[in-house]
């Protein structure tokens, strides 16, 4: 198998570090670009080359991207609430930063970019499962940033012949997920509460559902998007499991006492259609929610 120079922005973060590990395992020359605002030292693969850098510094990206064949763009501030409170700062990183990455790719003649998008671009949809051709309805700055990023990916593919693929992640969970931030994913939060002997806090009735996909499966989807021969023209592809799980079900799997607090405004249900991922990438998830949470309980010695 051919070995390539590959860049992973946000490669010290939760999802990015798992992509780095998968690429290192395949023997590629992997470079991480991360400003370490959310990345963690312990997530950095020792066989990768680390560049501590902010993607807002477009000039500084150019020499690092020289000679790269593939780029995975995971770097962002992925917090909905933070984007609502800091719309200008998050736009600068999530939108302008993405444009800087694309420019560095174009100027260095990179072959393909795989972009981390989000199911948040859909907003509230009346029909489930959610398919890629549904009209996006971003309801937060963060969601809009991701949608704009997809637009740029498509445009760069059409105008500059830079191959691009956009993966719309649903609710990713797994090892290395942070419990920091105002809206940590419920699985990481519940495990942290249980580990500290506290009650599991459920917002509202706990009947809200999400499509939870394991980070190992997400990393595998990224590698397939890099290699896939049926993609490269800015396609948007859902990466979920096709199954819904309620917050109450998560609490049941984690185990422990629960406490309900007042509801807040958020989508009631999310469920991905993954037909397109199967068709274009040959990908489907391999880890069930029960297995994934079981692994995290073991890892956390709970």
TrEMBL record:
Domain NAD-dependent epimerase/dehydratase: 6-240
Name the UniProt record assigns to this protein: NAD-dependent epimerase/dehydratase domain-containing protein
Pfam families reported for this sequence: Epimerase
SUPFAM superfamilies: NAD(P)-binding Rossmann-fold domains (SSF51735)
Organism: Candidatus Nomurabacteria bacterium GW2011_GWE1_35_16
């Amino acid at each position: 198998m051919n070995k390539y120079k590959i860049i992973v922005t946000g490669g010290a973060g939760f999802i990015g570090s798992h992509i780095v590990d998968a690429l290192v395992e395949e023997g590629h020359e992997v470079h991480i670009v991360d400003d370490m605002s959310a990345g963690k030292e312990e997530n950095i693969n020792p066989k990768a080359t680390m560049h501590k850098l902010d993607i807002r510094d477009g000039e500084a990206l150019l020499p690092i991207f020289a000679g790269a064949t593939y780029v995975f763009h995971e770097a962002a501030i992925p917090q909905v609430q933070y984007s609502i409170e800091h719309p200008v700062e998050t736009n600068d990183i999530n939108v302008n930063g993405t444009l800087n990455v694309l420019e560095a790719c174009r100027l260095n003649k990179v072959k393909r970019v795989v972009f981390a998008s989000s199911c948040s671009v859909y907003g509230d949809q009346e029909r489930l499962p959610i398919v890629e051709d549904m009209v996006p309805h971003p309801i937060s700055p963060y969601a809009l940033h991701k949608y704009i990023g997809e637009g740029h990916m498509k445009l760069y593919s059409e105008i500059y012949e830079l191959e691009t693929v956009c993966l719309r992640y649903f609710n990713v969970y797994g090892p290395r997920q942070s419990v920091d931030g105002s809206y940590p994913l419920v699985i990481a939060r519940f495990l942290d509460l249980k580990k500290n002997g506290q009650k599991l806090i459920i917002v509202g009735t706990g009947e809200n559902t999400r499509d939870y996909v394991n980070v190992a499966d997400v990393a595998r989807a990224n590698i397939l998007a890099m290699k896939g021969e049926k993609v490269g023209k800015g396609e948007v592809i859902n990466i979920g499991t096709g199954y819904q799980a309620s917050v109450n079900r998560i609490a049941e799997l984690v185990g422990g006492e629960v406490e309900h607090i007042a509801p807040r405004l958020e989508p009631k249900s999310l469920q991905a259609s993954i037909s397109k991922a199967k068709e274009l990438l040959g990908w489907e998830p391999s880890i069930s929610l029960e297995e994934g949470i079981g692994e995290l309980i073991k890892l956390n010695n709970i």
